[in-house]
Amino acid sequence: MASFASLPRILRLALAGLALLVLGACGFHLKGATPMPFRSIYTNINLDSEFGARLRRTIAANSPGTRFTERRQDADVYLHQITESQNLRQLSLDADGRVEEYELNLDFQFELLDREGHLLLPPTTLLSVRELPYNDRIVQAKEGEIDRTFKDMRNGLIDQILRRMSSPEVRAAYANAADRPVVPMPDDRIRDASPPAGPASIRP
Fold it and tell me: Please, is 163 exposed, middle or buried when counting C-beta atoms within 10 Å of its C-beta (0-12, 13-18, 19+)?
């Protein structure tokens, strides 16, 4: 029997395309994620931002029965973004005192409540850390790379948010919400689409 590698290139491409179609028909699911027990979500994350739009798409793909609502009172649960902060610090210097490497830190804190204010998921902090080499000869390019890296880090948090919202602990809390503590309903102002206060200016 001929191996896949020995097949003509056009046939290999056709088989690869067929495999992608099959995966698409089945729906892509994050490893470890399961459909959520609630049917509607309200969030103060701006769904028109790149991060918010990706969050919406990811939840739709992994929990097709769950949708976002425009009003908090129409939703089963409230996904509340509490804070988000990003910081940049010097990680190493060369012999002349010039920065060789930066460390990028992103903190994202959120909680999940039902419509009566029962706390289903207590305030949870997600932390993402990256190290980035720096070259003072190409400052503008490196500034752009830092911005892109923070954006990638922010989008990389989405699967962690989804796993926590679909975890057995949250499913059990939602099923027995009356036994959960009630907290004051937090502010539902929509978070701005722009990134939070940026990192300290990079220094050559």
Answer: middle
Other C-beta atoms closer than 10 Å to the C-beta of 180 total 19
Strand partners, 114: 77
Q: Which residues of 45-66 are buried (b: 16+ CB within 10 A; e: fewer)?
A: bbbebebbeebbebbeebbeeb
Residues 195, 150 contacting (CB under 8 angstroms): yes
**Average pLDDT of the chain to the nearest whole number:** 81
* Higher per-residue pLDDT: 31 or 55: 55
- Is the CB of residue 46 less than 8 Å from the CB of residue 52? yes
pLDDT at 1: 47
| Token pair listed for 29 | 């699911």
User: What are the backbone angles phi and psi of residue 25, rounded to the nearest 5°?
Assistant: -65, -35
Q: Token pair for residue 104? A: 């990028």
pTM of the model: 0.75
98: confidence class by pLDDT, cuts 50, 70, 90: confident
Residue whose C-alpha is closest to residue 101's, from 136, 144, 138:
136
Q: What would the mean pLDDT of 92-112 be, rounded to a whole number?
A: 84
Picking from 174, 165, 151, 146, the residue whose alpha carbon sits closest to that of residue 81 is 165
CA atoms within 13 A on the CB side of 56: 16
Q: How far is CA 166 from CA 130, 170, 171, 174, in A?
A: 27, 6, 7, 10
